Amino acid sequence: MDIDGSDNSFVNVNIKKHQSSPDSHQRSYLKAIRNVAKIEKDAQIKLRFYDPSKFHVINPSKRTRVGNPVGYKVVPGGTAAASMLDLDDPPQKCGAFTNNQIWVTPYNQSEQWAGGLFVYQSQGEGTLATWSERDRPIENKDNVLWYTLGFHHIPCQEDAPLMPTVSSSFDLRPVNFFQSNPILRIPANLVKDLPVCEPADSV
Fold first, then answer.
1. Strand pairing class (9-19; 28-36)
2. Could you give the CA distance from residue 143 to residue 139 in angstroms, rounded to a whole number?
3. Range of the domain at 173
């Protein structure tokens, strides 16, 4: 991630429910609590359905006109499944990057593959999980964000002889990166802009 420069920070924007004051007509409200990750362990994220968060990568030294740091957010999509194997199970040691859905590490040219150089032949050494054990500082650094994609596959009849397409995804979207909505000045579509569909000649 290089958001308007290489010195970036990871922010976990946790959404918490708070109780309203007794004289309010509304019983509760939501509050966004921003937690800037200082070290690698602060940015090891397990997605939780009932503990929602937004995940921002910001450049604290670049600000918009109203004072917000420019950034992009990671938007989970599809399924980011967590492994169900024991942590000391050999396949899980090799694939320990599945222990979290999001990791953030300082950039290191030698750290390129989350599962290590030879994932099927390793004992879990040289993987994202072992690099992160050093718990290096990541605030306002040149960082790498790792996102784990995956899903649990329980075979069924429709998978044979050819498995249907299954996909997983995530999005990167601007958050306070632009001064305003970037499509506001785009001219409106006119009738001449619409595609013209005509039937093909019959044979």
1. antiparallel
2. 9
3. 9-178
Residue 198 structure tokens? 């005509």
Q: Please give the model's pTM, rounded to 2 decimal places.
A: 0.84
187 within a domain of the structure (yes/no):
no
How far apart CA 81 and CA 75 sit, in angstroms, is: 15
Helix (H, G, I), strand (E, B) or coil at 85: coil
In a domain, 123, yes or no: yes
Averaged pLDDT, groups of 10, the chain, 203 residues long: 95 94 89 96 92 95 95 85 86 90 95 86 87 96 94 87 84 94 81 79 64
Give 183-190's long-range contacts (Cβ < 8 A, gap of 24+).
Answer: none
- Number of domains present in the structure of the chain: 1
Q: What is the CATH number of the domain that holds 52?
A: 2.70.98.20
Domain membership flag for residue 79:
yes
Note the pLDDT of residue 75: 94
Q: Identify whether 2 is part of a domain.
A: no
Are the CB atoms for 95 and 83 separated by under 8 Å?
yes
Distance CA 27, CA 40 (A): 37
- Residues 6+ away with beta carbon under 8 Å from 14: 32, 33, 35, 51, 52, 53
